[in-house]
Amino acid sequence: QVQLVESGGGLVQPGGSLRLSCAASESIFRIYVMGWYRQAPKKQRELVASITSGGSTNYADSVWGRYTISRDNAKNTMYLQMNSLKPEDTAVYYCNAVHPLSKAPLNSWGQGTQVTVSS
Q1: In whole angstroms, what is the distance from residue 22 CA to residue 43 CA?
Q2: SS3 assignment, position 73
Q3: Is the predicted pLDDT of residue 52 greater than 70, yes or no?
Q4: In angstroms, rounded to a whole number, what is the distance separating the alpha carbons of residues 56 and 85?
Q5: Which of 8, 51, 60, 100 has minimal Cβ neighbours within 10 Å of its Cβ?
Q6: Residues 112, 105: Cα–Cα separation, whole Å
């Protein structure tokens, strides 16, 4: 399995921005779909953004227009640029490979990175 390490979270005020990074332990070039999930307190983990190896992207309605997912296969790294953050974006964010049909995660979870949006 691919080992994934998330970073870049923190505390930010509403309306602020953060950029998350996901570093892979081996080439992610062959992984067709990669994605960012998040889990807020007392809520189920949800897929918020995904990207194919060809660069096609998909977003949850709740983050559409505010988040941008990207990947650099040469660096084995994926990113999530989050703008116009809202308190409801507060969650632990995880990256993973994504099953293209079921949207289920394909690897074990990493430690995640905490994003807290609060004034």
Answers
A1: 22
A2: helix
A3: yes
A4: 23
A5: 100
A6: 14
